[in-house]
Structure formats: C-alpha cells, structure tokens
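Lab notebook, design round three. We kept the backbone fixed and only want residue identities now. Task for the bench partner: fill in a sequence for the structure below.
Input structure tokens:
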C-alpha cells in the first residue's frame, strides 16, 4: 500500500510538471511549435534577409569599381557598368518583401530607390562649379540612388552610347555609386551581429527585453505584412500606374526602371522576395520559412500559396517584349500578370495572415 501511494504521488507530480512545462510564467499556454517558430525566424533573418543585403553590398562595390574603370567611348566598359548596375539591382528588388528595420527607420529606402528622378536637380548639380561628391548628394533623394544612376548609364531613351558620356557625368555617376554603396553598407551592417544586429530582434522574439517583437507571433506577422505589402505595390502601383495611369490608358513615364528596360525583372524579383521569405530559401540554401509553419496547420493553403507565387512570377515573365511596349501593345498579357499578383496578394491577406494571427 505504501508503495502504491508513493507511485500515485509520483504520477501526480509528473502530471503537474507536464502542465507546467506547457505554460509560461504568466500562466499562458506555450505553443508546442515555438521551437519551430524560432528556427523560422532565425533562418529568415540570418540566411534570407541579412544574406540578401550582403549580396547587394558586395555587388554595389563591384558597381563602384565598374564605373571607376569606365573609359568614355569604351562600349565594353559601358556594358560592364550596365551589368554591374543590374547585379546590384537584383538583390535590392529581392529585398522589397522585407522593408522593415533599418531600411525603414534609417531612411535608406528613399535614399536608394526614389522614383521618379528629378532631372532639374540632376542638371543643377551637373552644371554646378564644385566637385561632385557622395556627400553633395546626401540630402537629395531624387538626384541619387538606383534610378539616377540608371538615367546616366542608359540615357533618357535607353540608347546612350559610351561616346555620349561627358567627364562631368562620369564624375556624378561615380559619386552616386559611392553614395549607394555607403547605403548598402549601412543597411547590411544594421542587420549583422557585429553591427546593429537587427536580426537578433527576430531571433529573440518573445524573450524578455525584446522591445521590438514582444512575441514570436508579432515577428512572424512582420514577415507576413512585408510580403503582402510588396504584392500590393507590384500589382496596384508598379504595374497599375503605367498601365492605366493616363485616364485608363498607358502612362509610360510612370514606369520604374524604364531607362534600362529592367521593369519586368524588377517585378519578378519582387515576387521572388515573397518566395524567399515564404520558403526560407536564398541563393541555393534550403532553410525554414513560413511554409514550414503553414504546412503543419493547413497543407492545402501551403500548396496554394506556393502555386500562386510561381504563377505570378511566370505571368510577369511571359509579358512580351519590354514593359514599356507591352502596356500599349500587349495589354492583355500585362493585365493577366497583374491579376496573378492580385490573386497572390488576396490569398496572403485573407488566409495566410489570419492563420499566423491565430497561432
């Protein structure tokens, strides 16, 4: 009898311990998937977001070098500049699904990617008498960044030749590239552990002392809101305004990246930024992403999201020719791409966000 009583007490204690292990100090139940959430937040912040910024920072230095090496009249070196610009542009567009943290709070986004450029301000700087330096451009977002450089490299109509450059334009372009590299460095260092360590806010989400993300859910919702925002921007801004911005007709001057005819790739890479966050993958590395959470909660939804991401990318890439031409000559294909992006946005907003909100 005594032995049975001891065993009974032991079973009660074990049951109490099990209950305690499923609760936090505030008496609230702890999600048994919390370790998975931490893995997702760690991987996405370190191996997707921070690595994307690392790629951009590395490529922006190569862009500085390509401009420095450019000789006026050398078409091969002009091609090298164009390729370096596009190589830097790619990871930037793949980062637009996570425009939070330093890129937002430190004003880095408008410093790098303001559109449209202000040709009057650019000409005023070109015609000034002093040296054109990175610091001179620091307070004028419409006269620096990707699109100012694009304007100089390709020209207003995209037909600029290497012989068309002036010494002053190269000086401006070099200063703009240095300024851009400074911003990519600031952004990358804002996330890495040895810098501002913004990634740690995601890794430690829900821990005591984390004032940015007081729970894992709030951090996961930041990821979700980021990808919803870029889906909305692509469909209802980047595509819609050039397609219908002139009283329902084409407005080509509203097209972003029109000097380089890089718009379709920009849009596709924006959707790839959604894909990278959702899958947790970047640059060939297969990690944990939102898909790993959704799959255990609603496998059908997980499949649908991945299908719609792929459909949106494919529809954008299927637009014939340049986007400039397509908004006039291939409107049904552009409208189809816009519709596929809208379908993705609607699914993320109506199904993914509620699922994460109810974790």
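Proposed sequence:
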């Amino acid at each position: 009898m005594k032995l049975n009583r001891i065993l009974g007490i032991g079973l009660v204690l074990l049951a109490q311990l099990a209950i305690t292990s499923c609760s936090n100090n505030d008496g609230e139940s702890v999600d048994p998937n919390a370790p998975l959430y931490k893995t997702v937040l760690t991987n996405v912040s370190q191996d997707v977001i921070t690595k994307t910024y690392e790629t951009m920072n590395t490529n922006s230095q190569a862009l500085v070098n390509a401009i420095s090496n450019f000789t006026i009249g050398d078409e091969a070196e002009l091609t090298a500049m164009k390729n370096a610009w596009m190589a830097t542009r790619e990871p930037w567009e793949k980062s637009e699904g996570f425009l939070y943290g330093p890129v937002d709070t430190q004003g880095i986004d408008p410093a790098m990617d303001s559109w449209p450029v202000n040709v009057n301000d650019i000409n005023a700087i070109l015609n000034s008498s002093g040296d054109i330096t990175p610091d001179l451009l620091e307070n004028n977002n419409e006269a620096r960044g990707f699109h100012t450089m694009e304007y100089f490299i390709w020209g207003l109509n995209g037909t600029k030749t290497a012989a068309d450059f002036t010494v002053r334009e190269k000086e401006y372009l070099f200063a703009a590239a240095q300024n851009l590299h400074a911003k990519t460095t600031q952004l990358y260092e804002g996330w890495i552990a040895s810098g501002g360590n913004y990634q740690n806010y995601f890794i430690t989400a829900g821990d005591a002392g984390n004032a940015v993300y007081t729970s894992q859910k709030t951090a996961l919702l930041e990821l979700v809101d980021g990808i919803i925002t870029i889906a909305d921007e692509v469909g209802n801004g980047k595509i819609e305004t050039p397609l219908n911005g002139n009283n329902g007709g084409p407005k080509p001057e509203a097209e972003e990246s029109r000097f380089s005819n890089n718009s379709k790739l920009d849009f596709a890479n924006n959707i790839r930024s959604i894909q990278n966050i959702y899958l947790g993958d970047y640059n060939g590395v297969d990690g944990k992403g939102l898909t790993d959470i959704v799959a255990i909660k609603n496998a059908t939804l997980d499949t649908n999201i991945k299908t719609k991401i792929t459909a949106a990318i494919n529809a954008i890439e299927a637009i014939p020719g340049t986007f400039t031409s397509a908004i006039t000559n291939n409107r049904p294909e552009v409208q189809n791409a816009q519709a596929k992006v809208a379908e993705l946005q609607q699914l993320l907003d109506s199904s993914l966000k509620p699922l994460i909100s109810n974790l």
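Keep this in mind before ordering anything: Residues 34-68 form the longest helix (35 residues).
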